[in-house]
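Researcher: Re-running this chain for the archive, since the previous output was lost when a drive failed. Same request as before.
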Amino acid sequence: FPSEKAACDFLGVSKSCVASAYRQGNLYHGYKIIKPVSENDIYGDKRLRKIWESMHERCEYEKHVQYHNYGGRGISVCDEWDEYIPFAKWAFSNGYSDGFSIDRIDTNGNYEPDNCRWSTMKEQANNKRTNRIIIYQEQEYTLAELAEKVGMNVTTLRERLNLGWSVEDAVNRPVRLKTKGWRMSNCGAKMEVTT
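Model: Regenerated structure tokens:
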């Protein structure tokens, strides 16, 4: 039944008979009593509401710790998402779940349906505007993406590039393994390490 009143009318009983069963959503004389639901009940995900609030705070509240990276750069939230329910409807119809967070496709664009998606933390990290972009074999990669592609530690790749190595050398030269008891000398010969 869509409401307590409808349940009472259909069953021909007084309101007090059905009230407790209605509140608990239980059966009354074999009929299932269903509470009416609002859009807030349907889309009332607490985590999603916090994402919506945080999005507005970053763009509109000048004292927010991240304001300079969002509202301070001219990034805003579209008028359509001023209300929570339209944002929640978009979120649920575009793949929102607990493992994802909102990500702007164009990091210089606004929060709006055409520029937002739900991404994992790894995908978001590769979409930061502060990422170092490296061209390798005529393709663009972030430092982390390239390290993962070639099977190298990201710190090793970063340090090689910081030392001025070419991208090809940084990627293709084998990584020297540290072995207990010896190390390479400057001239390339093995030296015993005595302790």
